[in-house]
Amino acid sequence: MEIKVNGSWCEFPDDTTVADVLDAKGAARQGVAVAVNGEVVPRGAWAGSVVPKGASIDVLTAVQGG
């Protein structure tokens, strides 16, 4: 199935979770927030949150600065 990750379409197997997407993209687990279709997914729910076909996922990294 296709999922849009940070604006780019990617192919993933059915029943892919948020954690699977992060692993496939090599995203860090610290300092990261994830939203699926505009809804923030709590870190504790990443492993159990199945991403629906055609979903848009935004992986945001916290950056220190001023």
From TrEMBL:
CDD domains: Ubl_ThiS
Name of the protein this chain belongs to: Sulfur carrier protein
Organism: Amycolatopsis saalfeldensis
NCBIfam families: thiS
InterPro entries: Beta-grasp_dom_sf, Mopterin_synth/thiamin_S_b, Thi_S, ThiS/MoaD-like
Transmembrane segments: none
SUPFAM superfamilies recorded: MoaD/ThiS (SSF54285)
Domain of life of the source: Bacteria
